[in-house]
Amino acid sequence: MKFIIEHLSKNFEKKEVLRDIDFTFESGKIYGLLGRNGAGKTTLFNCLNRDMKTDGGRFYMEDGGLPREVAAEDIGYVLSTPTVPEFLTGREFLRFFLDINEKSIQDPRPLDEYFDYMSIEPEDRNKLLKDYSHGMKNKMQMLINIIARPSVLLLDEPLTSLDVVVAEEMKQLLRSLKNGRITIFSTHIMDLALDLCDEIVLLNHGVLEVVDRADLDSSEFKDKIIAALREESHD
Ligand SMILES: Nc1ncnc2c1ncn2[C@@H]1O[C@H](COP(=O)(O)OP(=O)(O)OP(=O)(O)O)[C@@H](O)[C@H]1O
């Protein structure tokens, strides 16, 4: 399976944020998306999730060499700021999500199995989501996105505000989930990107380019990324 973006562009009035995004993502890989503040990472995710209209270009899936339209259930999107219904308990939210997606979720599991999977403690499962910490809300958002088994999982800086233990658990989780799907992960934490991702992709000057990590040790590779991103400031 591939996820192919061709000549995608997006402007905000006169500001050209995405100029010509042309990229092919392949199943089984985690892609680390790096870019300066304001480079357009969230805008790209919003366009791919169809929350925002693009100004040009297209994107589609390719299965067994055949192109097909992107269906809503193909894309999972975890926002950097978790948005969950605060008036529900963790358990109510999960049950509600499973109920409304009953037809599309293959092999639903008992609720506690999902909570166990995300290491959400039994005493927290019946608490209101408004009383969940940022990291716990983030886990819930991640959970509902992975239950739905999207082909493409977009993660907008999901680990930035998590403590080291939860961040490590999330990393393990993402690694365990990567087969059979495309994971695109935006982050400002370069070590995390180098550690977790199979490919590093830079969003720079409105285009996406892969950074070749062949034959470079980690420090040289980091310098190369910083040098490439620094160019952006001379615009
Ligand atoms: N709805 C909008 N209306 C106008 N301009 C916008 C809108 N959304 C984003 N922008 C602009 O588009 C540019 C890219 O923003 P975006 O949030 O996509 O960047 P980012 O790479 O995710 O940044 P960061 O790393 O700081 O989160 C910025 O200049 C931003 O001000």
From TrEMBL:
PROSITE patterns registered for this protein in UniProt: ABC_TRANSPORTER_1, ABC_TRANSPORTER_2
InterPro entries attached to this UniProt entry: AAA+_ATPase, ABC_transporter-like_ATP-bd, ABC_transporter-like_CS, ABC_Transporter_VariousFunc, P-loop_NTPase
Record keywords: ATP-binding, Nucleotide-binding, Transport
GO MF annotation, one: ATP hydrolysis activity
Domain (ABC transporter): residue spans on this chain: 3-230
Protein name stated in the entry: ABC-2 type transport system ATP-binding protein
Taxon lineage: Bacteria, Bacillati, Bacillota, Clostridia, Lachnospirales
